[in-house]
Write a structure and sequence with these properties.
Length: about 220
């Protein structure tokens, strides 16, 4: 029997009385790459938050990396969000999240997230504070910091919510490339409005009416 990386069975989720996900099922095998497209507001980010263990479905079952409990699911996944989700701490702390990773590992992640050139221009380097909700860094820098965080966390499942939306095309391309190399062999679920940025390793689903439709 396959142990799915992600097994969603008939899940539903509502914000108060607004139902966003209806009876949705999705099975993802380990190492599979899934792309999710769909109109703005159709529920893609909500679905990723369930996959990340940030929300629990109202109905149905969600088993992620073999875990049922949101607290356990959170340990197994790395999430790069659409909106800025940095802590008011240093760049280093935002990448390590309190783990004692060696410097070489942090710099390697920065390299793969195209952060090094920028960090080298900062007087305090990795120890620069990003400000309240990351207001002292640009949207693109904040996204790359989250990508570096995801690269350091040795998670088996990578969840990406428009990870390159705030990057200029050149930087976006190099970060996507780095992500591709480093996500190889891991399970990836990538939400995007730019399907053309997903290579042929991706199986594409469209989210519509609270369900997933294979493209
Ligand atoms: N915290 C919240 N409370 C109440 N409603 C919410 C909340 N977050 C999202 N919604 C609503 O749920 C629906 C789905 O939102 P979601 O953010 O999942 O969409 P999305 O597909 O990610 O859209 P986009 O492509 O614009 O990022 C929207 O109608 C949105 O207004
Ligand atoms: Mg979204």
């Amino acid at each position: 029997m396959v142990q799915y990386a992600v097994n969603l069975e008939n899940i539903s989720f509502s914000y108060e009385n607004h139902t966003v996900i209806k009876d949705l099922s999705l099975q993802v095998e380990p190492g599979e790459h899934i792309g999710i497209v769909g109109d703005s507001g159709c529920g893609k980010s909500t679905l990723l938050k369930i996959l990340a263990g940030l929300y629990a479905p109202d109905r149905g079952t969600a088993v992620i990396a073999g875990e049922h409990l949101p607290g356990e699911i959170r340990k197994q996944v790395a999430l790069v969000m659409q909106n800025n989700s940095l802590f008011p701490l240093s760049i280093r702390d935002n990448i390590t999240c309190g783990h004692n990773y060696p410097d070489e590992m942090v710099w390697a992640a920065c390299q793969n997230a195209s952060l090094v050139k920028w960090i080298e221009t900062l007087p305090d380097g990795l120890d620069t504070n990003v400000g309240e909700r990351g207001n002292q860094v640009s949207g693109g820098q904040a996204q790359r910091i989250q990508i570096a965080r995801a690269l350091c966390k040795n998670a088996s499942i990578i969840l990406l919510d428009e990870p390159v939306s705030a990057l200029d095309p050149d930087t976006g391309h190099s970060v996507l490339e780095a992500l591709c190399n480093l996500t190889d062999g891991r399970t990836v679920i990538h939400v995007t409005h730019h399907q053309e940025t997903l290579d042929d390793r991706y199986t594409i689903y469209r989210m519509e009416g609270g369900k997933m439709i294979r493209e």
